[in-house]
Amino acid sequence: MDKIRIRGGRTLRGEVMIHGAKNAALPLMAASLLTDETLTLGNLPHLADITTLVHLLGQHGVIISMDGGAPNGGHDGRVLGLRAERITRTIAPYEIVRKMRASVLVLGPLLAREGTATVSLPGGCAIGTRPIDLHLAALEQMGARIELKGGYVHALAPTGGLRGAEIRFPTVSVGATENILMAATLAKGTTVLHNAAREPEVTDLAHCLVAMGAAIEGIGTDCLTIEGRDRLHAADYTVLPDRIEAGTYAFAAAITGGEIEVVGGRVDHLDAAIGALQAAGVSVTPSARGLKVKGQGRLKAVDITTQPFPGFPTDLQAQFMALMTLADGASMITETIFENRFMHVPELARMGADITVRGNTALVHGVPALRGAPVMATDLRASVSMVLAALAAEGETIVNRVYHLDRGYERIEERLRACGADIERLPE
Ligand code: EPZ
Fold first, then answer.
1. Cα separation, 390 vs 145, whole angstroms
2. Ligand 1 centroid to 142 CA: how many Å?
């Protein structure tokens, strides 16, 4: 497995172009199952998770064509055409789902279009148990019969297909909102989703579904009303920029006291994170192309609590903690979305950070300096928090198990190096 070596202490300067959002691209690709015509998606990031979903969709019968990315073709980055003219298989096997939980997003579309779906239960993961009970309960409300057998969800729609329903999610779930939103576009009648997730990735999916002919009201709010249609059609859609990638590079500028223009970063998607950076003494200003982020001296300690959008995103919690390890004062970081998302704490501690965890709160006392060390992480955002810490640490850090990073950050070492970081990938 590749490693990344970072020699810390360089001030980063330059610009980073943000790619399409992984967590928007995945549901958008799953939406291709809803129509027999071609869904063309532009600005897809080059990431391992996208490849995993290409494999899964391929074995459902989706024909996928690639144009390799055409800067002048109306899209930036990789463009995929996904055509599910005929769904040949409605089983999502364990071998693929276990690699990537987001595979479960095929459940709603398959069930809505084919009336049946058999999808492996994803199981727990490094950041929490992450059940899919909300997805299943909502599908049952739409008339589906759900059985759990042999580690698989066996779902069957009633005769005549899924029926619209009034669904109230007991907690906000991005994945459940996306799965049910997709299923509802082909259900009979009206579905209302209360307490729906409002993450920009959910909104992006809703806009794409509308482009495919779906009728959805309340986009961007926590109440979505979907009028089912008999069929959806072809569409051409561009994935929104990745707000978590944008936030991560903004934090890289902040932790090294540098200055980075985050090209494609959107203020309206990063309000909470920008607020936290500004409170920490970092200058963040909108620019014509995105955001300009400028670290100025030592950071100040800031408390944050993760919340569903528009609150502070759980997917930036680990990275913010890396910043706070070097802040003046004590910062309280509370994680409310996942029960086990502090896997980065012991690794940051190995670099000299002073962090105490009690329940879902971490108390971070800023230290004068971090020292490089060999580290490793069990999830994507934890891994990148170590990269951030390493950029500011004294000496050399080796980040092991880089495949986690490759699931969410495209060519991170090249892009940080272009801003002046001393970073290289050490192939196995
Ligand atoms: C999405 O995961 C993202 N993944 C995650 O990104 C992100 O951390 C998360 O939303 C929260 O923003 C993708 O979009 C592919 P949830 P998802 O359903 O949909 C509980 C990253 O680093 N829950 O909103 O799986 C669940 O256990 C990642 O890119 C249930 O109890 O998250 C969690 O505690 C990791 N039952 C909370 O809700 C359910 O049926 C929120 O989960 C569903 C969820």
1. 50
2. 22
